[in-house]
Amino acid sequence: MSINFYSKFFPLIKKGVASVPFQLRPLSTRTDLFNVENKSEEYAIFRLNKPPVNSLNLEYLNLLNNQLDEFERNPKLKGIILTSDVKSTFSAGVDILEMYKCEPKRLEAVWRAVQDFWIKLYGSKKIYIAALNGHVLALGCAIAMSCDYRIMVDNDKTKIGITAVLLGINAPSWVKNTMINTIGFRETEKSLKFAKIYNPHQALKLGLIDEIVSSDKLLSRSEEVMKTWCKIPTLAREMTKESMRSETLGKLVNNREVDVQEFITSTMDPHLQDNLGKYLASLKKK
Ligand SMILES: CC/C=C\C/C=C\CCCC/C=C/C(=O)SCCNC(=O)CCNC(=O)[C@H](O)C(C)(C)COP(=O)(O)OP(=O)(O)OC[C@H]1O[C@@H](n2cnc3c(N)ncnc32)[C@H](O)[C@@H]1OP(=O)(O)O
Questions:
Q1: Residue 206 and residue 158: Cα distance in Å, rounded?
Q2: Where are the domains of the chain?
Q3: Which of 84, 150, 260, 271 could cross-link to 209 by cystine, CB 3.0-4.6 Å?
Q4: ipTM attached to this prediction
Q5: Ligand 1: which residue has its CA nearest to atom 4?
Q6: pLDDT confidence of 215, banded at 50, 70, 90?
Q7: In ligand 1, which atom is closest to the CA atom of 276?
């Protein structure tokens, strides 16, 4: 069995690795919009920081995609804890302003960047732990589900889920598949069909998250789990992850154009545009 999982799906990245020798990275990387702290050679903490809700627009997705590539290029790095510095929100998903009254070319670029992000994250050989400090909605939920493990703060007001259907959106098949692989077919069907939003205890019961901790323990517990997992034989862990995920991953990798066209067609639909306008207004009114 091939163990070269990442390069199988990212031949260009593979080419980059082959032509650019690995260089030692600085201890941490800080931009205005995220922060990477290398806790040891083996793992890093990756904090999203785009207030007010870490919404994902094209520029931010491109920035995050570059950072995922950066992680992938570091052979010593085994795992990443993905979290957010924004108070009470992990991510509210795609920036709705990218979808409302949008230019088709820009929308296409946004969706390709969303696909890239999911393919890189879901297809990574590294260990990703989602440390969910706050709300985890829509694409934010798909991102969390694409990690290997989810730990969420114990706060009844914190929400996790995907409510696409309320706006007339049929979630893309790779989002559905990611959810099916996390909580099973029946619960996914109920969750998406009825736009279910869960608090942490409901999500834990469902298996949508794996642990709940108090907010002051979120990072220490995530690091504890990460350290344990870093001790697992790397090759076997990577091969297991590949064998568990390659089928689902391949379904999007081999079907990207159809997925792009479906997204553009459904988003440009006047009825959906109308819904998005009302939804945006309701968010602003609060
Ligand atoms: C629209 C499509 C819905 C679902 C699609 C789902 C799945 C399909 C998967 C693939 C496609 C993915 C698409 C998406 O991800 S679209 C994004 C959908 N996201 C949401 O529906 C979340 C909306 N936000 C909220 O519910 C709340 O903001 C949240 C996260 C619970 C935080 O609440 P709170 O702390 O009270 O903050 P505010 O609501 O006051 O928000 C502050 C500020 O941010 C603006 N904002 C919130 N979310 C978004 C967003 N996703 N995009 C752009 N802007 C957003 C909000 O309007 C406020 O703006 P203001 O100017 O008033 O400060």
A1: 16
A2: 5-285
A3: 150
A4: 0.96
A5: 164
A6: very high
A7: 1
